[in-house]
Amino acid sequence: EVLSRSALLQELVIKGVMSCVLPEVKDLYHLLEHEFLPLDLVLKVQPLLNKISKLGGKLASASSVPEVQLSKYVPALEKLATLRLLQQASRVYQSITIESLSQMIPFFDFSVVEKISVDAVKHKFLTMKVDHM
Q1: With the CA atoms of 98, 101, 106 and 112 taken in that order, what torsion angle do they form, in degrees rounded to the nearest 10?
Q2: What whole-number distance in Å separates Cα of residue 108 and Cα of residue 100?
């Protein structure tokens, strides 16, 4: 059975997974899933990602995974934070300058943000128009 995103998130809550995660991971989840902070979402996310990138290590011998390095998830989390910011900004702003948007997303050069934006629009994740003038 393939679970939808919302069903998967609900399953995590029901099974109490969030009570077992590190505080930085829990804070990141809360920011990305429950907060509406279009102006400073990424500024709040970035320090958490810096901490998360340094976490990891060996797990208990009973675990099927001997070791985990959370740093490998940081690029995908940066992309998710960028998508969330774009999604939230599109609800608040009718227009925003490329310079302002670039300052709000320090993870990537604007060309990367533009590609993420185009993909998000193509997959109907958000609605936006870019005016390069």
Answers
A1: -60
A2: 13
Residue 79 pLDDT grade (very low, low, confident, very high; cuts 50, 70, 90): very high
Tokens of 1: 């059975």
Name 67's bridge partners: 58
Q: What predicted TM-score, i.e. pTM, was given to this entire model?
A: 0.86
C-alpha dist (Å) from residue 22 to 26, 27, 63, 69, 133: 6, 9, 17, 13, 45
Number of domains in the chain: 1
pLDDT of 60 above 90: no
Q: Tell whether 27 is covered by a domain.
A: no
Q: Please state which of the ranges 13-17, 52-56, 58-62 shows the lowest mean pLDDT.
A: 58-62
Could you give the CA distance from residue 45 to residue 37 in angstroms, rounded to a whole number?
A: 11
Residues in the chain: 133
Write out the E strands in 1-133.
Answer: 56-58, 67-69
- Domain coverage including residue 48: 36-122
Confirm whether 128 is domain-assigned: no
